[in-house]
Amino acid sequence: MTGLELAEYRVNEIRLGRETCYSSGLLEVDAEGLAALAAQDPRVSSASFDVVRPGEKARVTGIRDVVEPRVKTAGSGQVFPGVLGPVAPVGQGRTHRLSGMALVTAVAYEGTVRAGTTSQRSAILDMWGPGADMTPFSSLNNLVMTLDLEDGLSAYEAHQAIQRAEFSVALRLAETTTELAPDAVEIHDPDAAGDDLPRAVVIIGVFTEPDNRPSNVAYYGFPVQESLSTVIHPNELTDGAITPSTIRTVSYHPITWNWQHQPLVLGLLRDKRYRFAGVILERIGFETSREKEIAAHNAVRVAMSLGADAALITRTGSGNAFIEVMLTVKGCEEKGIKTVLVTYEYGGKDGADAPLLYYEKEADAVISTGNRDVVVELPAADRVVGAYDQLQLIGYPGAPYVAAGDPLTMEARDVIAGGIDIWGGRDRLCRPY
Questions:
Q1: Could you tell me if 125 and 59 are in contact, meaning their C-beta atoms sit under 8 angstroms apart?
Q2: Are strands 408-410 and 376-378 parallel, antiparallel or unpaired?
Q3: Strand ranges across the sheet with 338-345
Q4: Which candidate among 86, 118, 191, 318 keeps its CA 20 to 30 Å from the CA of 374?
Q5: Is the CB of residue 249 less than 8 Å from the CB of residue 227?
Q6: Which distant-in-sequence residues (6+ apart) come within 8 Å of 320 by Cβ?
Q7: How far apart are CA 124 and CA 391, in angstroms?
Q8: How many whole angstroms separate alpha carbon 123 and alpha carbon 150?
Q9: pTM for the complete prediction?
Q10: Is 248 or 419 the better-scoring residue by pLDDT?
């Protein structure tokens, strides 16, 4: 695979107008035309659009996904292969991106699973105040697309409808740049690095549940379930070869924007001290100790086959799936592969509880990306957009509702879109203590 040129077009303002076009930082949006595009899927009844800006006292509800618009202008395939079009290799050629903005998709979908590890939940986003400080999405100019779906859809049908609608609209937005000169171009070509450099890999533990569709992670539109480790080229993430579920939007499960901007992958792509040997997707969340040991052993063997001297190891999800991650750290270290583990921690409401649920002594280089469990107090909003006028702050049947614009008390950061920095993409400073 050859290199990928990533051309940047900065969006400083979004305006609803008569046509969809981009010029000198202004993105004009034809809401009626984009609504018709989203509704080409018969499972989508209608779509509407709003704009929210950084610092505005606006709250977005019912968020199912966040996407940075991108389009391929050279090379094989198109962005989001296997979802928008046929499966074709991506990660080379040229891709345009609209930076400084995102398409935020909100949907009032109530799935059949309302509690437990497979609960189907949406997220919220505050564009100001303490909630905004927890998420990168509050600093973006956001185009909010609210979808109405046909009644009676299964979780997988709803996911397909949401994803196809949002990716189609995101692609249309990015297509406004195809004939324009970019503000900047970044080239990602890990294969051009010298063979004499140390070889590094990124291992991402991806949490999935057996027999549960949509899976939390899909590769070229194919759900990753019950699999052992898969090697992918780092540039494939840039072009949307990895996509998430839109049904379970809690912050420890990354959404599309997170995969497009995976910070450990981007860091190694830009670091000329290493040869980036590949990204390993390690399926985690197995149910027995034996299965967990096999998954970790397999990930270590794959890293060895790539000639890895070093590994950045991180994860998605929560719960006992962390056992596979820690066993992978242990296995890599035992085979001479130097590791750094990047993970959020639990810590309890005051940060004094055990931060991780499982340890191995080989994990002697760990970066914390913050405490998931802190209580969040959100002030009242002047404006509410998105799918819900009322919110269930605790995701179980019978939980009380509150007005979406009222002051809110959240028991953790989970329900804030981007509220948990699972991979260390923020500019927070960690100190040892």
A1: yes
A2: antiparallel
A3: 230-232, 275-284, 199-207, 310-315, 338-345, 366-371
A4: 118
A5: no
A6: 285, 357, 358
A7: 9
A8: 21
A9: 0.93
A10: 419
